[in-house]
Amino acid sequence: MYVAVKGGERAIENAHRLLAHKRRGDQDVAEIALDQISEQLGLAVDRVMSEGSLYDRELAALAIKQARGDLIEAIFLVRAFRATLPRFGASEPVDTGAMRVQRRVSATFKDIPGGQILGPTFDYTHRLLDPSLAEGFVPETPAAAEASTAPTPRVTDILGRDGLIESSPATEDGASVGDLTREPLNFPADRDLRLQNLARGDEGFLLAMGYSTQRGYGRNHPFVGEIRFGEVEVDFVAEDVGFAVPLGAIELTECQMVNQFKGSATEAPCFTRGYGLAFGQSERKTMSMALVDRALRARELGEEALAPAQDEEFVMSHSDNVQATGFVEHLKLPHYVDFQSELGLLRKLRQEFSKAFADANTPDAMKEAAE
């Protein structure tokens, strides 16, 4: 932190006090509680957990409250807290095929095993402001049905049984998985690191990158194979007992994108895939992630990489909103010495320009130029 002028520490302390006052707002209005944020601003909480890389609804709600609703600042707070936590190990891969589904839609097949489940979604709302929400609106009790025990296989698995889509890229048993939270990013990056990067990446940035692929910057024609949202069990292998034990359930959104097919002289044409996974209900994020994941696989699939979304160094180096925020916001800090240096150079150049202009416009010089 810069303290570049006399009295800077006192000014900073006063700024903190003013921030706390502004955060609280009018004290005649009831203070918002963490459970209200968690329950009523759930999608904001989900985003903070995903991009903060920490599944804890209460801490994410606290961060949103502390950040006055600035989600990127809240993500920064969550990551800073996460960095203080001890690391005990890694959980087992979650089985999204065994998800307790709350929402499941496919744009590729109307009738899928287990059925389509609309669940909670804005997709069919009219996008008109609802004044009743300002008047203590109490919603109707939602329709309920017995939980289905029918299997809900992933659409990509159904396509895979007939060889119509490429196999999911597999890793060798026992192969180490990179960890961007503990190791610096290096290029070229394998898909495990790319997916980690995208999962932590800014939703707006990924949305723009994914949108660009659909507008011709990446030749990407996608179909949503499936989006599913629900609860999955998380297991952890405890050294004391020697086998996996359940830690509990978390909510996830998964997107499987089906993309244009490829083929060669030795391989039959088949669809390719893109993948997205995020905490909570994060459909826009996972769809964007899946589009960009597919674009970043260009070289792997023998495609020419020409578009920004296909450039892994460009995408991965600029997708992190905490890093981007720090680099942009440092411009607000004092740069007095640097600016005075630039200012002195500019004045010197202007003096030299004025002298050269005056010398070129003397009567003798103009006469010589005319001849």
Please summarize what this structure is.
By secondary structure, this protein is α+β, with helices and mostly antiparallel strands. Helix content is 40%, strand content 14%. It has helices spanning 8-24, 34-40, 42-52, 57-66, 71-82, 155-161, 191-200, 203-214, 283-296, 312-318, 321-329, 336-360, 363-370, and strands at residues 100-105, 222-238, 243-262, 270-279.
Keywords:
371 residues, alpha+beta, 4-stranded antiparallel sheet, 13 helices, disordered N terminus
Strand order across the biggest sheet?
1-2-3-4
Low-confidence stretches: 1-5
Number of helices: 13
Oligomer: single chain
Question: Kindly state the mean pLDDT as a whole number?
Answer: 89
Q: Can you summarize the main beta sheet?
A: 4 strands, antiparallel
Quantity of strands, as a count: 4
Describe the 3D structure.
Strands 1-2-3-4 form a 4-stranded antiparallel beta sheet. The chain has helices at 8-24, 34-40, 42-52, 57-66, 71-82, 155-161, 191-200, 203-214, 283-296, 312-318, 321-329, 336-360, 363-370; strands at 100-105, 222-238, 243-262, 270-279. The protein has 371 residues and is α+β, with helices and mostly antiparallel strands. Mean pLDDT is 89; it is low at 1-5.
